[in-house]
Amino acid sequence: MASTGKRKTTMAKLNREAKLRERRLVKQASKDARKQARLDPPADEAQPQLGPDDGMPTDPQPVHPAGESPADASL
């Protein structure tokens, strides 16, 4: 007569399955990263170059060393 009891999965099998799931996740993540890299343009082409007419000040405020006020710099 065959046993009708449920067989328990061994820890070794559970560990193998967990390792397999982890490898599949890593593989899918790397595939997604390659796909995204193909779709996205490189960073230097994605951002436009700012020129003098793009709202940026042409003469930024001078930076003074710590502890000196702009009045001290002219002396």
Would you kindly provide a written description of the structure presented here, covering whatever features stand out?
With 75 residues, this protein is mainly α. It has a domain at 11-40. The chain is 49% helix and 0% strand. It contains three helices and no strands. It has helices at 11-39, 43-46, 70-73. It starts with 10 loop residues before the first helix and ends with a helix. The model has no long low-confidence stretch (mean pLDDT 77).
Q: Average pLDDT, to the nearest integer?
A: 77
**Helix/sheet category:** mainly alpha
Q: What percent strand?
A: under 5%
Task: Give the ordered list of helices and strands.
Answer: HHH
Q: Report the strand count.
A: 0
* Main β sheet profile: none
Shape: elongated
Determine the fraction of residues in helical runs and give it as a percent range.
40-55%
Question: Brief description of this entry?
Answer:
The chain is mainly alpha-helical and 75 residues long. It is built from three helices and no strands.
Which terms summarize this structure?
75 residues, mainly alpha, 0% strand, elongated, single chain
